[in-house]
Amino acid sequence: MMRAILTVAALALAAPATAQSSATSLFDSMRSTPLTAGGWTYRSTPTGSEARFANVFTIRCDRATRNVTLQRTDPLTALSGPMTVATDTATRSLPSTTTSLTPRDSLLDAIAYSRGRFVVAGGGGAALLIPAWPEAARSIEDCRN
């Protein structure tokens, strides 16, 4: 009985470390990978603004709902399922390739202030290594103000 309790306690302690380790490893494993080809563009829209990286990732501010939407797209493949966003300070699995967050969500800060790049993976496409340029932060800030 005591051995079973110790085993359960050891597993409980190991689980968060394993989750953090795998989260960190996604970002770290992409460090030597070349950045995904493309650049950021920013534009005002009738409902807010959007920052788009090439034709594969968009950060959209909807001022009416005060939501920031992260959307992964692929012009050649229909993407579906969860996506993971990893920065140098945070990693989070999101329920789908189009996910809305509140403007004060800590993941958005992690994207905006990431050291040079962040990773978007999942949805059935290849992992993207996206540069952290000011356009992303600008669209996020539009929903905060």
Structure description:
The chain has a 5-stranded antiparallel sheet, covered by helices on one side. It has one domain. The protein is globular and about 35 Å long. It has 145 residues and is α+β, with helices and mostly antiparallel strands. It comes from Sphingomonas rhizophila. Keywords: Signal. This is DUF3617 family protein.
Radius of gyration over all CA atoms, rounded: 17 Å
Strand order of the largest sheet: 1-2-3-4-7
Number of helices: 3
N- to C-terminal distance: 57 Å
Profile the largest sheet. 5 strands, antiparallel
What portion of the residues fall into strands of 2 or more residues? 25-35%
Q: Write down the secondary-structure element order.
A: HEEEEEEEHEEH
Low-confidence stretches: 1-23
| Structural class computed from helices and strand pairing | alpha+beta
Q: What is the overall shape?
A: globular
The number of domains: 1
Mean pLDDT: 82
Regarding quaternary structure, what we see is single chain
**Strands, total number:** 9
Helix content: 25-40%
Helix and strand layout, with pairings?
Elements: H1 2-29, E1 40-45, E2 48-53, E3 57-62, E4 67-72, E5 83-86, E6 91-94, E7 98-101, H2 106-112, E8 117-122, E9 125-131, H3 134-144
Antiparallel strand pairs: 1-2, 2-3, 3-4, 4-7, 5-6, 5-8, 8-9
Helix pairs in contact: 2-3
In short:
This protein is of the alpha+beta class and 145 residues long. The chain is 32% helix and 34% strand.
